[in-house]
Amino acid sequence: MLENAPCAPRKRSTTEKIDRIIRRLSEANRRLTARDIHNEMKVYPECSLSVRSIRRCLVEAGLNGRVARNKPVVSLKNRRTHATFA
Hints:
By secondary structure, this protein is mainly α. It has 4 helices and no strands.
């Protein structure tokens, strides 16, 4: 039976230094999107990454893009009626 020979894994497109830069940019301003970080990374000539690569780097660092849900605004009148009900 024939089998494929084991291949070497694909070479990473980012170095540890670039990963750190991306993580620092994201932690400095948590509202930056991967596209915004991509535009800021154009300053570094050794780094030509796609937006998707930056997104993977952020997920790998544990910086998933999630937004906290807003609490509903409960008026003073509704709080009082709830307190009397409870």
